[in-house]
Amino acid sequence: KNQVEQSPQSLIILEGKNCTLQCNYTVSPFSNLRWYKQDTGRGPVSLTIMTFSENTKSNGRYTATLDADTKQSSLHITASQLSDSASYICVVSDRGSTLGRLYFGRGTQLTVWP
Amino acid sequence: DSGVTQTPKHLITATGQRVTLRCSPRSGDLSVYWYQQSLDQGLQFLIQYYNGEERAKGNILERFSAQQFPDLHSELNLSSLELGDSALYFCASSPRDRLLLYGYTFGSGTRLTVV
What we know:
heterodimer, A: globular, B: mainly beta, seven-stranded mixed sheet, four-stranded antiparallel sheet, 11 strands
């Protein structure tokens, strides 16, 4: 069964600190993995997208890693800011025969305190 | 602004009623996807349309239906509403029916509250 599991479910850190969010998946065949940031009550916004051959991709203070062998990804946030408080969602796409499907994790709720 | 427009932003209605949510995809996008996100739940895929035709179905209840019109906007109809239908409903669009590496964009959602 294709699944995406994220950990931790929630995380509280102090402003300026770093943190790492985890994503494990069983989706096969794998096409790409995306990390989204979802502010409360808003639509998800894409942070990074990685294919099978990419190990690391950065977007400002966000760095995503992918290990396609172990089917794990992480999102590292450096020098956190109050505006980083949001839900971070890992989404994996398969290479279906007719169309790719997206499989969503339930997200990690990050809270940054001043 | 993502380019995907959803209306209304908020909707409050009573149990048993019927509502219609509207989505205008990003200019040039042919495919529209509908998602439901209940409190503390992940995004649940409901249904996809491509250029007016239904392409994929997810966990969509029989009380729910959708369509995509010739101008490519889409409507999600929810009927016989129950308290458990209270959720955020998101629309996303992409250029084609196949999920490309880029170009998959979410709208800001409609918050439905059933009382």
